[in-house]
Design brief:
about 230 residues; alpha+beta; 2 domains; six-stranded antiparallel β-sheet; 10 strands
Length: about 230
């Protein structure tokens, strides 16, 4: 599928391009397939281009100077990654880990720079994306300061359900989590043992039930209510 025909095009930076510019990048793009456990790029690496996620799920992970690893963010189809390094020309501040079978369109720096020489809107779109990400990071911080662990966890579970949930043949609402329990703790910002205790409590209260990575919601409206989401 050509980029200009991609259903995500109008929702991303690439909407700034005209037909001729799309054709130029189309000739230069490289479609790449990744499996869980692969890495698009590593923290500290110099950026060589930009990745547009066509399908799949990527986790952005950062390791501090003491070796502590944190899963910062999950990004899925229709999202551009690697653009910050492209804009700032600084090394990647995090690694991009593949969490599910993923297909990306890769654009090398020279081709994008060539387009930006005649189309400044593309650069502006990258900066807008940078700003949105910064605001989202601030909102996440405020959430972590003002919401309890349970609410943060339930919000995360509802977000997973929105993207990956389904109703099975028996009418139960299910979500197959794309991350392990320890990574859930990282995303909520607590220790793994705290998440384990919370999960045990949610199961004993019949809010949701876990079987490995499969989660069954006893009552989705109840989950929303306990998370503080308007039903």
């Amino acid at each position: 599928m050509a980029c200009i025909e991609c259903p995500f095009c109008t929702k991303t930076e690439w909407d700034a391009l005209d037909a001729a510019e799309h054709e130029l990048l189309e000739k230069a793009k490289r479609i790449e397939q990744y499996n869980p456990g692969d890495t698009l790029f590593f923290q500290g690496e110099e950026g060589s281009g930009v990745y547009c996620i066509k399908s799949g799920l990527i986790g952005l992970r950062r390791v501090d100077s003491n070796g502590n690893s944190v899963l910062l963010q999950l990004v899925d189809e229709g999202t551009t990654v690697g653009y910050r390094t492209f804009v700032t020309r600084e090394p990647h501040s995090s690694s991009a880990e593949v969490l599910s079978p993923t297909q990306v369109c890769y654009f090398a720096r020279p081709q994008i720079e060539k387009v930006m020489q005649t189309n400044s809107r593309l650069g502006e779109k990258f900066l807008q994306h940078f700003t949105r990400d910064a605001v989202e990071t601030e909102n996440s911080y405020v959430k972590s300061m003002t919401m309890g662990m349970k609410s943060r966890f339930l919000h995360l579970m509802l977000e997973f359900y929105e993207h990956y949930g389904y109703t099975d043949k028996s009418g139960e609402e299910i979500v197959d989590l794309p991350v392990a329990r320890g990574e859930l703790a990282e995303l909520v910002g607590v220790r793994p043992e705290s998440i384990s205790r919370l999960i045990d409590k949610l199961q004993s209260d019949d809010v949701m039930h876990f079987n490995q990575r499969r989660v069954r919601f006893s009552n989705l409206d109840r989950v929303r209510a306990e998370a503080g989401v308007e039903v």
